[in-house]
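Re: export button greyed out
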Amino acid sequence: MNPTRRDVLVTIAAFAAPTAEAQASFLTAAELASLTLLVDTIIPRTDTPGAADAGVPAYIDRCLAANAELAERFRAGLKALGAGWAALSAAQRTELLQSRQDDPFFRLVKGMTVDGYYTSREGLAGELGWHGNTYLTEFKGCTHPEHQR
Amino acid sequence: MQVRKSPEVHDVVIIGSGASGGMAAWNLTRKGLRVLMLDAGTKFPRSQFWSHVKPWQVPEKIAAGQKPPQFYVDLKTAPFQTPPGQPFDLVRVWGRGGKTNIWGRVSLRYADLDFAGAERDGWEIPWPIRYKDLAPYYDNVDRLIGVCGGDDDQDSLPGSRYHLPPPPPRCGERLLQRAAGKIGVSIVAGRRAVLTRPHNGHAACHYCGACGKGCDVGAFFNSSDYLIEPALASGRLRVIDNAVVARVLTDDEGRASGIQYFDRFTKEEHTVKARVVVVAASCIDSTRILLNSKSRRHPNGIGNSSDVIGRYLSEQVRLHMFGFVPELLGAPVQNDDGIGGEHVYMPRFNHRDGRKRDYLRGFGMQFWGCGAGDGAGWAKEIPGFGADFKTAVRKRYPALVALHPYGEVLPYADNRITVGSAGVDDYGVPIARIEFKYRENERKMMTEMYQTAGAILKEAKAEILPYDPSFMGIPGQAIHEHGTCRMGADPKRSALNGFCQMHDVKNVFVVDGAAFTTASEKNPTLTILALAWRATDYLATELKAKRL
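Workaround output, generated via the alternate export path:
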């Protein structure tokens, strides 16, 4: 029997060991906690892993460590979320983001979350189903009869 | 510091190891000449390419202290200057094979529409050659390196009897082809230097789609494996690594006598002697070398009595539009890697009967990125957050189509490279200042490029991703620089003849993109290879006849 999509995802998630936590992070623990809530509001866990499951906070942390100007803007944005951020329910957090679609900080975090999540094993292979960059002897192209005109 | 002077006089010294330098070395050694190649870097070992590193493995490998091959030379090693507010992105690879290690591989023949464009519209000068002059060399190149494609000739895009079988289109490409056909725009099989079957001892493509990271089996043309290795095997080619060329040296009569270069790392100065010099360092670096090669006989740079060297820098202007075709929304995800890059191409059509335009020259269109890719950067433009956002992205992922029109930039005398006002590099050699602007003609052409891409997407009933129609792109990003040492019939208006030989200095040949008279809308490498082959056939004949 072929493994189901969910089986594969569970297996993949098991491999996604928390390596980043073991290393010193650029952001403080409090900042990382706010960020984790934020990325998981953008791409939450559903029947597939979410952004936090896929290591997106660590991905963003690495980006910030390499770019001082970006890090400064990012930290200011996290700070502006305020103390109440962590107390909001998931639904309230989503609502807040929805109501401020054009906010530059939310756009920035969304962009970095998209980059991190959809290049992770969980996001790219698991969620989207990418199975490329392999060795094939033949490329069949489009085989749908209805597309052949 | 003492200069290390090599006494040996080489038949030919070639500056650069990319497409044009590799072709020159291969062809000249084949003809029995003894050749020295100066390469600004070293060989990139295929075993170290990251062709099969998955996106999520990249951070892991970097964290473990590993690095992919460093193809791109950094700006500290190879600086250049642009005026404030006038950016130019210059992409250069120093090392064996140059940019052919990671090139886009699109291999389009120029047509007489390109070579003779200026005859019809009067803008600057036409090429001194026509398609019939280059056609045998295009055939030669196709046979040597292997180019897959169709036999579907158009007036703006000649076909080839020697194309390898083209790969079938991906679903999204097929749907765009169908939609374009309905509005009278023809999309044909692409032409790409990728081996769809084994060819001349090189392995066939295994459809992993990672060409941009270098091919681990060499299944697309790169100058190192396809040209330089066979030339080395002849025993008549020597390559000096890490040789950063500064100047072409001249004798009292103003003829080229050799080359001055610096070791990339020790910065030690060297000179070598040559009967003939072939300049193939890529458009802008070649031009910088020529302009820096000043002497009593060449106060304006070697071979530059016409004052055209450095002028007429022509890149291409391009845009990127994305959409999602309804037939593929939520469809099962396929492996869309194919031969990397698109399998189809839209040849130029705006010159044809019944079409009107308010600008000169034209544009074609590429389609790289259709289908399931190894990322989803476009998802940033999909509105929303949360589970709904995730679903919206997943649904669109297999349905992505991408349209990239490329347009010709006219040659302008003041789109130019100069040296002398921008300081020097770590070797003490004056760096290039690049001044480049798009003008009215490019803006008008861009309007029609946006309209055409939009019309195809609309006909395909695609959801179009938001875009900014005033965005002209960053010059240099097409990585198609041409024109700064152009060929032409009139020595007062051009630096080279139709064989890439300097009008002023018979023993200097410039064989890279700098030699192009116009940019055209097409990717240049196939034409660079054909021109370099033709030029070095002529060089060998002239050298044997003692006319150089």
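Chain B is about 25% helix and 15% strand. The button fix ships in the next patch.
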